Amino acid sequence: MTIDTDPATIVRVQALAAALKARGWRLATAESCTGGLIAAACTAVAGSSDWFERGFVSYANEAKTELLGVPPAEIEAHGAVSAEVARAMAEGALAHSRAQLAVAVTGVAGPGGGSPAKPVGTVWFGFSRQGGETLAECRRFDGDRAQVRAATVAHALERLAALAAG
Fold it and tell me: What are the pLDDT tens digits along the chain (166 aa)?
């Protein structure tokens, strides 16, 4: 079973879809550590073209800058896995799409790449709503690479549904 066929993920996507459609909103994603898994989960549900606008996979720092407009100085000052970069990614996804809601994820999925300050499982989320404040939050997930990525997708979908619902 993959993330996009997991029954719990499908339920999360359906809740998000209902909330977005009720508002007439569309979603954009900006993904680093998940490599497009949030977009894949969303588009696995039939009818997602009614509410899913586009997804950006910006794994490299250069892609974050080129695709989303993340200032290189933010990446250099705070690191790619940071509140500042997550916020900038989410805002960039909105600015480069026709969506009203965006999510960004940047993290350390493992097994390597962690540090004492940002251990494996650290993920920063950015949530941006057109005309609203951009939120950032950090979560630390346990498990191997697949488990960290799956937990990241689940959390993103749950928070997006709550934000879309209002």
Answer: 677 678 999 999 999 999 999 999 999 999 999 999 999 999 999 999 999 999 999 999 999 999 999 999 999 999 999 999 999 999 999 999 999 999 999 999 999 999 999 999 999 999 999 999 999 999 999 999 999 999 999 999 999 999 999 8
Residue 127 phi, psi dihedral angles, 5° rounding:
-130, 120
The pTM for the full model equals 0.96
* CATH domain 3-165 topology: Maf protein (3.90.950)
Q: What angle do CA 120, 125, 126 make, to 5 degrees?
A: 150
In this structure, how many other beta carbons lie within 10 angstroms of the beta carbon of residue 120? 20
DSSP assignment string, 3-31: GGG-HHHHHHHHHHHHHHHHHT--EEEEE
